[in-house]
Amino acid sequence: MEDGAAAREAERWEGYVDWRNRPAVRGRHGSMLAASFVLVVEVLENLAFLANASNLVTYLMNFMHYSPSQSATTVTNFMGTAFLLALLGGFLSDAFFTTYAIYLISAFVEFLLRVIDPT
């Protein structure tokens, strides 16, 4: 009887819980299935971001009448700013705040920027 309890205790990941706040068990939680889901979501997110960037170049050239070099520079600056702000937000959420607090701060900053310049 004690061997079965010790085996179940060895299967648990200490300090980790599932979404229902139950102890995480090695055979049921994690694995390559969960990792592959995260990887697929990341690939699709990057595809969507790059599709938006290419559409932004088309929009700037055709409707805003920017030159090709101006529109490419604008989109490059936009993408660089987005990636650097993501790194800054990740660092701040890991080091000082929670992810939710950083989300609220970034949403508030976006709101202020839209109030200042609503274009």
From TrEMBL:
SUPFAM superfamilies named in the record: MFS general substrate transporter
Organism this protein belongs to: Oryza sativa subsp. indica (Rice)
Name this protein carries in UniProt: Uncharacterized protein
